[in-house]
Amino acid sequence: MTASNMSVPLWQRARPLSEAELSDIPWLASLSSQEKGQAVSSMRAATAQAGDVLCRIGKPPTYWFGVIDGLLKMSNDNSAGPPITFTGVPPGAWFGEGTLLKREPYRYNIQALRRSTVVGLPIDTFHELLDTSLAFNRFVLRQLNERLGQFIAAVEIDRLNDTDSRVARGLAAMFHPELYPGVGQVLRITQQELGYVVGLSRQRVNEALKGLQDIGLIRIEYGGVRVLDLEMLRNHRVG
DNA sequence: TCATTAAATTGTT
DNA sequence: AACAATTTAATGA
User: Fold this and answer.
1) What CA–CA distance (Å, rounded) separates A42 from A171?
2) Tens of pLDDT along A136-172?
3) How far apart are CA A28 and CA A37, in angstroms?
4) Whether A138 and A38 share a structural domain
5) Distance (Å) from CA A29 to C1' B5?
6) pTM value?
7) How far is the CA of A186 from the C1' of B1 (A)?
8) A143, A97 in Cβ contact below 8 A?
9) Which residues constitute the domain of residue A186?
């Protein structure tokens, strides 16, 4: 899967957000009307094709990103060390605040696994909202806290180095209701895409999914997975 | 809206 | 990696 575009042209095709898209953004509702206007007028939506890169390791921070529709992955390919996918990035996700806060270069790549609708809030607006809006601060803080919990869980599972558990954790992470409110009970992801996210072959993912389905944690659907017991999926271990 | 066809996805070897 | 079976998406009457 090669990137079909160069560094930034994704945002040259950017457009204002539709009403439906705006209503899908959870933190907008808690802003004052003035702050909301500020955010809405500076935000841009764009369609990323499969393989498009939204941000690259080492590039200066430009936007706070949101996913309206589709699927992205966060990884460290083409950096020193082995390629590792940190997580899949499903609809409802907002990310990049850590990099923006420190005004440091991105530490990961974000790439579209399939055609996706993404939103960018410029870094300047991001900081203005941080300086003026208590509600916005609360959202960002909660976001950072929830994600910290996810990464701790990730380290825990990776120590076990069990592939079934990696699939379970990767799935459970993307079903996180606070971080990814756009997902719901059914995550739209193909087994091929899940393979990219957890770093396994499609065949291996297929076997792991069947195992998870047998013990009643998920139901495999065409082009997606339905979660039946998120708590058990999170804590899944072999044996 | 329905039938037909093409494309995508899955399950299996 | 390749294959067949199944599901969805697209097309046009």
Assistant:
1) 33
2) 999 999 999 999 998 888 888 777 778 888 899 999 9
3) 10
4) yes
5) 45
6) 0.88
7) 28
8) yes
9) 163-234
